Amino acid sequence: MRSNVDPKKLEQLMDILGKEARGAGSIYFTGGASALLIGWRSSTVDVDIRLDPEPPGIFQAIAKLKQDLNINIELASPQDFLPPLPGWRERSVFIGKKGQIFFYHYDFTAQALSKLSRGYDRDINDVQAMFEQGLFSLANLRDCFEAIEPDLIRFPSLNPDALKSRVENFIEQADQMQAEGPS
Description:
Order of helices and strands: HEHEHEHEEHHHH
Distance between the termini: 42 Å
Number of domains: 2
């Protein structure tokens, strides 16, 4: 059983990956790792990453780190569950550079759509937190969903109608909350 990851452990992970990688590349954090770094969660069970482009030597560094820091690192990003959103790289938020590794938050619009596709309470709470932090816009959420909607058929485990309903409901509720203003 791996221990939970907190912001300090995530910073250690970034430092060590930057030192251990044998070449340049980019690592995109998703889910709990983004939540930790931005501050709407204090811990996460695992660190989900996407390598693009993959830094040389990164898998050896990850294998070592999983043991040394006692953390779970998984290769997972929104595009493992949904079609890649147009412009996801441009919307990804730069975190910093360690050694030759560039670290980013994977596109928050894509993260929101991915979490809405799962629909768990914690995921919906994360989407709400991302929206409240201004990490994506409702217009962009709608536009990106519409852009990938024709390709959802390529993901058989996904229910396109359920996702569309969750996206529309989230936008409607968020619009309503914005109209009412702070309570």
